[in-house]
Amino acid sequence: MIPDVDNDSIAYLNGEFVRLADARISVLDRGFIFGDGIYEVVPVYNGKPFRMEGHLARLARSLAAIGIQADMTPAQWEALVADLIARAGKGDCMVYLQITRGVAKREHAFPNNVAPTIFAMVTPFKRPGAELREKGMSAVAIPDIRWLHCEIKSVSLLGNVLAKQHAVDAGVDEVLQFREGFLTEGSSCNIWIAKDGKLLAPPRSNLILEGIRYGLLEELTTAAGIAFEARPIARSEVDIADEIILTSASKEILPITHFEGKPVGPGVPGPVYTTLRAAYDRAIDAL
Ligand code: PDD
Predict the structure, then answer these.
(1) Is there a single domain that holds both residue 101 and residue 163?
(2) Count of the separate structural domains present in the chain
(3) Which of 25, 125, 148, 264 could cross-link 92 (Cys pair, CB 3.0–4.6 Å)?
(4) Which of 84, 106, 124 is where one domain is finished?
């Protein structure tokens, strides 16, 4: 039994549906040994996956980037996710998908003729509540110590784990990571700033994971008539931002109202956040 986990929840492992607590892999799985694998987290509202095509496109990009052939078409991934949701019972949940290079003798180079390990689970999704939406989150700055392929949604997440623990130890909700003085992203979320009514984001590059909400926020921003620019954002600009906003599958869109112990702007959720939050909720309602 795994503490604090719904051990009876549904999981999928290499073609079989099992209880989460009963799913077993070899200790020689390269995901365990090397962190040699990729993953996705798909939010599901009322039984319906949100922005599924984007998640599957990124899954395919991550697999291609590290040379894993999973032999699954987008339609088969969609059917697997639909099957999991149906078995889990409708409602809000997160579908987690992970593909590793498979089980092999421990040698760094890719093994030949090894089938990838395909794992999926459904976890409860408690949407961020009124308190976070209305009061916002707190964050501190840290140097981004991660590798140079952050665009791959790799399960090698030690840098992200250490980043999040830094937030916990500092008594704040999140960290903003900076590489050579420029904003990259949070521990497991994309970061945006608003200045003079304009939304700014670090550009798509190998230094950030392009969230599925990255493209969504661009769309919502354009539709709302808010100016948008993707360009490198210096630490000095973050310090004087009117608003700081974060996005991720699990956090949706939330304001960061305190940064480095100081209020961001007036220290309450700002107008750009409020407009985009409403648009985000409408996109979910339209599912
Ligand atoms: N994290 N950047 C990083 C490093 C992330 O880990 C994530 C998502 C994002 C936002 O991506 P998206 O909008 O597709 O969720 C950006 C997921 C939720 C996780 O690891 O649990």
Answers:
(1) no
(2) 2
(3) 125
(4) 124
Q: What residue type is 64 in one-letter code? A: A
Task: Specify whether 149 is located in the same domain as 216.
Answer: yes
Distances (CA, A) of 75 to 64, 80, 125: 17, 9, 24
Distance 205 CA to ligand 1 centre (A): 15
66/14 Cα distance (integer angstroms) = 20
**Residue 210 lies in domain:** 130-285
Taking the C-alpha atoms of residue 224 and residue 217, their distance in angstroms, rounded to an integer, is 10
User: Looking at this protein, which amino acid is placed at residue 149?
Assistant: H
CB-based pocket (< 6 A), ligand 1: 41, 160, 185, 188-190, 209, 211-213, 247-250
Task: Give residue 82's pLDDT.
Answer: 97
Span from the CA of 206 to the centroid of ligand 1 (angstroms): 14
Tell me, in angstroms, the distance from the centre of ligand 1 to residue 54's CA: 13
User: Model pTM?
Assistant: 0.97
For residue 90, name the pLDDT band (cuts at 50, 70, 90): confident
pLDDT of residue 85: 96
Q: What is the pLDDT of residues 253-274, one digit of tens each?
A: 999 999 999 999 999 999 999 9
- pLDDT tens figures, 129-158: 999 999 999 999 999 999 999 999 999 999
Whether residue 167 sits in one domain with residue 33: no
pLDDT digits (tens, 9 = 90+) for 51-87: 999 999 999 999 999 999 999 999 999 999 999 999 9
Q: Tokens 């599912």 — which residue?
A: 287
Residue 188 lies in a domain: yes
pLDDT at 2: 84
What is the rounded CA–CA span in Å between residue 24 and residue 272?
Answer: 46
